Amino acid sequence: MKVITNTGDYVLLMLRVFTKPQKGRIFWQRLLDEIQGLGIESIGIVAFISAFMGAVVAIQTAYNIDSPFIPLSMVGFTVRQSVILEFSPTVISLILAGKVGSRIASEIGTMRVTEQIDALEIMGVNSANYLIFPKVVASMLINPVLIVLSMWMGILGGWLAMSAFGLVTTTDYVRGIRIDFQAYTIFYALLKTLFFAFIISTISGFYGYKTNGGALEVGQASTKAVVVSSILIILFNLVLTQLFLT
Amino acid sequence: MIEAKEVNKIFGGHHVLKNISCSFEKGKTNLIIGQSGSGKTVLMKCLVGLYEVDQGKIIYDDRNFSEMNFEQRKNLRQEIGMLFQGGALFDYMTVEENVMFPLNMFTSQTKEEKQDRVNFVLTRVNLENVNWLMPSELSGGMRKRVAIARAISMNPKYLFCDEPNSGLDPQTAGVIDQLIKEITDEYGITTIVNTHDMNSVLSIGDTVAFIYNGELWWQGNKNTILHSDNKELNEFVFGTELTSRLKQ
Ligand SMILES: Nc1ncnc2c1ncn2[C@@H]1O[C@H](COP(=O)(O)OP(=O)(O)OP(=O)(O)O)[C@@H](O)[C@H]1O
Ligand SMILES: [Mg+2]
Asked: Using a CB-CB distance cutoff of 8 angstroms, which residues of chain B are in contact with residue A118?
């Protein structure tokens, strides 16, 4: 029951979000701020997690190849496939749901409970559009960039681990990365990322915007935003994988 | 003039406003008083349309606000300034950006014109050299004054103040009250002030409406309020140690 009313409220809110900004210049300013806040500030954590995950995938694969018939270049191949297809678009999106989603929900929720949203409305500003739209656009612009960065860092991390522990030579690793490469997989990963960016920014905006009460409710809204966006990412991941890779 | 006609507001079974009819006059500070929880904020939010009334009408100088569509309301709202109970300053903007915000959003003034206007209204509320501070760096009284400056930056015809001096010391509270009164007189604004402070009532209460449990219980002004024989009103007016001793 609650799912139905929430979905209805979400759709109604989105109708107000996706309208033409009242003042173009202000929108661009807000967009730049959001790209900074939601994107640039996430670079560090994305790079860090990706490099270590790439390294772990590489190490796991290398230790599990014990047959002389499987070439060591399989390590590079496995790292590339798992990083591009799932790890970067899905796992990093989940991490961003936690980092960016809670930030969006608590920022907007705080504005709600301190009557800043009322103040916007009273001036005649479409607050939903003013607050949420730049965040959605910024997320959809910056998340793909972060995901591409994550792919590079994952593959790089794998290589560093292999060289450092002397498990696979650089030549073998690079050969593996090049085996049977299809540009389509990158396209597919970025498409998923765009979907997930939309989910994270709109769901978190929704939970922040409908906060009611005080500081406690802001905290709850931000938890809800993260949980619901994560669940939706996982569900849509299955649907999209089924749609595009078959 | 703003009129409320038989306004009712119900929150999920809780009847908060009961058939309130009253009018608020131009060029005067019209006070709404009542205990905490009596419905002052809800009434004010109904007047400006932040809450939809469940029954009744709101009229702004012969314009029926309740029947307006979104676009018409947006236009009317540019004639409204509002001071919220907590100030509601945008906390990621400086003082100057806060005050300039409505100008940026709704006018096509040049940078200089906007800057002049910002400095003018900030001076008007006796705030100078704070343009670059963030709201978190201001005291409570300064924050209220910035909020007043922002509310009047667009030259509103209607000014709403929700407890403008709550949380301030009596002197600062008096300064804020006088400021609101002066601005109202100076620009002929229709001003509505929510308060439960008897000092404000006696100093700036051109008209006073007493709300009791969501009903309009008594109407008068700062001169008549001390001589009413309304029991609930007297309990409110003489409810503090100071006022009850003064009465004796
Ligand atoms: N959004 C809301 N949903 C449900 N009930 C509400 C809502 N807003 C206010 N109320 C209820 O309406 C009643 C009046 O609240 P209101 O905020 O108008 O009081 P007030 O007179 O402004 O009090 P105070 O002086 O403390 O600010 C309260 O009982 C409150 O619980
Ligand atoms: Mg109130």
From this structure: 45, 50, 82, 84, 88
For residue B127, give Cα distances in angstroms to A80, B30, B153: 61, 25, 14
Encode pLDDT of B33-78 as tens digits: 999 999 999 999 999 999 999 999 999 998 999 889 888 988 899 8
Task: Establish, for the pair of chains A and B, how many residue pairs have beta carbons separated by less than 8 Å.
Answer: 49
Q: Does the distance separating the beta carbons of A123 and B101 come in below 8 Å?
A: yes
Question: How large is the ipTM?
Answer: 0.89
DSSP annotation of B65 reads G
Tell me: the pLDDT tens digits for B182-207? 999 999 999 999 998 888 999 999 99
DSSP letter for B102, please.
H
> Per the structure block, which two tokens stand in for A52?
């270590």
Alpha carbon distance B142, A31 (integer Å): 30
For ligand 1, atom 2, name the residue with the nearest CA. B11
Q: Which atom belonging to ligand 1 lies closest to the Cα atom of B34?
A: 21
Residue of A nearest to B159 (CA): A122
B91 vs B224: CA distance, rounded Å: 41
CA dihedral A162, A166, A170, A174 (to 10 degrees): -40
Ligand 2: distance of its center to the CA of B184 in Å?
21
The DSSP symbol for B25 reads -
CA distance A118 to A127: 8
Contact call for residues B117 and B150 (beta carbons, < 8 A): no
Residues in chain A with pLDDT < 50? Answer: none
Distance CA B192, CA B31 (A): 6
Give the per-residue pLDDT at A72.
Answer: 86
- Two structure tokens written together for A154: 């994952």
